[in-house]
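Here is my example:
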Amino acid sequence: MRLVNHNQYRNSFSWILLVGIGVIVIVACPPANSTCRSAQAAAPSSTPTDTKSNPATQPDKDTKTNKPAPKPPVVYRKWIDATGQYSVEAELVEFTGGKVTLRKRNNHLASLSITKLCTPDRKYINTLALGENLIVGLVVKVTDGDTFIIQGVQKKQAVSLRGIEAPMKKQPFAPRAKATLDKKILKNKVRVNWTKRDKSSHILGDVYLGDRWINKEMLLEGCAMHSKLPATSKELANAEKQAKTAKAGLWAASNAISARSTAGDGTNSPDKRPTSDQKKDSSPQEPTVYVAKSGKKYHRSGCRHLDKSKIPMPLSKAKQKYSPCKQCKPPT
């Protein structure tokens, strides 16, 4: 009779059982990395992000072409109030008299005092405005080489480039000057820094397209002359000097004429030949200056302080009651 070793069978059964359990565990449980990836794909994000409002969340590359994706122009930014409790995504469209106007994404306007914004937002506006009024809008029409129409907050407004004078419509080089300005700014959103309006009630200001100063570009390309009224700008005067040296634009013509009678004191014109009237009467005449009804100073003809009233007066008589304007610097 053969004896059975129960311990041997018991040990064999234990090994078979352990191997079977191991196979079940391996089949039922995939690798840890695969589990994590599956869980991440299935679980929704706990903090959803808006890729449109947050450029940082946009992909760096186009997955189809493997090239850097083009970045849209930054128009909207986050504005925070002085308490830090409220914020809104909007674009700055106007800053006048300490009042800020913002346009939200739904095109609704919000107006508030700059004092109600947080300190970084106030500094941002002051950096752009440079102590002046500010308007940001789309250029809808260019009328000549130094004037255009901008879409304001609620209406269209005419803007004249400060410190430059382009030829008028019937003067030589006028079509080219208009075409140059048209190519630069038409259908583009520009920023205008301004303080006063001219005689035609146009906004008189410096025009910027991004970091480009359009006033200066027009002078450098010889498409306009530097106007010394209301005040002389050293940077603009130097730009005109460079254009003269390079004989750019209108300075290349031998018969170039002054753009407008208000362009400084007439020293910009390469053609200084006297007119027929000047030949008939070569005797010196006393300069004529202008005063305002309520003013205490006398001015040149195109001074910005003469917007409301303009009374001509001989210089000798004006000096008896008035003092010279520091802005337009009339003869003394």
About this structure: The radius of gyration is 36 Å. Residues 149 and 222 are 22 Å apart (CA to CA).
